[in-house]
Amino acid sequence: MAGPQPVENVIQGLRALQDSSLSIIRLSEPISATPTSHRTSDVSASAFENPSPESLEADLSHYKELFSKLRFSYLEQVTKEKFLRAIVGDPPLIVEHAENIELESQLAEIKAVLKAQKEHVGDMVKELDARGRDLSRRYETIFLQTTLLSSLPPQIEDLNQTLVSLRKHNQSTNTSETNLALAMPLPATLELLEEKQASLNELNAQLKALQQALPRQTRTLESEETELQKLELERERAVGLAREAVDRKQEGGGADELERKGRWLRGVESGLRGMLEVGA
Q1: In this structure, are residues 261 and 241 in contact, taking their beta carbons and an 8 Å threshold?
Q2: Residue 161 above 50 pLDDT?
Q3: Which of 36, 140, 146, 151 could pair with 14 in a Cys bridge, judged by C-beta atoms 3.0 to 4.6 Å apart?
């Protein structure tokens, strides 16, 4: 087992990284000329103190809206100023049609360059957004892993104490068969467990086969019992006829016929007894 000091150092370093909150605005502070601790916008200050992907996206939308309003106001003011200067100037500034055409061609070129730059900036923003989301996921994963890592040393210590107590208890008891099984190494224990599991699986298979055969055997037993009841009735009838024949023979009436019939019935009875293995 590694020493506890390196593990503690790693945990302390991760906790120090967690204590420093991440924020896009705060990351820009070292290169920004103006402090950003007090913002003049109406974005929630709690989102600034505790940033999240949702709050950052709301900030981005808010700043885009502010920039659009600021740009519109700037263009409006600059256009008005130039127009007023052109009117009140001495002499007044007069622009010819040819100059307008030339300015429009230059404006078209500038707009094309601006459009290309906007597309480039848009691609950069998408790339930064994807990278930021990936970093956010990695940060959350590292945070969860750090939490798990900080809980491992106490658990390891508890397991070591439990292991020591179990070893002391095992040494203090006598060396019976059960204790020898408990003191087996891990490979032998796994092998014994596999043997027990195989035996249990075999018993379960036998039990399942017997359970599947039970309804069939039950039906067979019921049919045999029905046949036995029929044979018992035949036996009782044959015994009754034999007794009747004996009585008639003693009385002297129909002796030959009844004697033949009695011999036949006794033969049937003996055959049935032999088939059913029923004692007299």
Answers
A1: yes
A2: yes
A3: 146
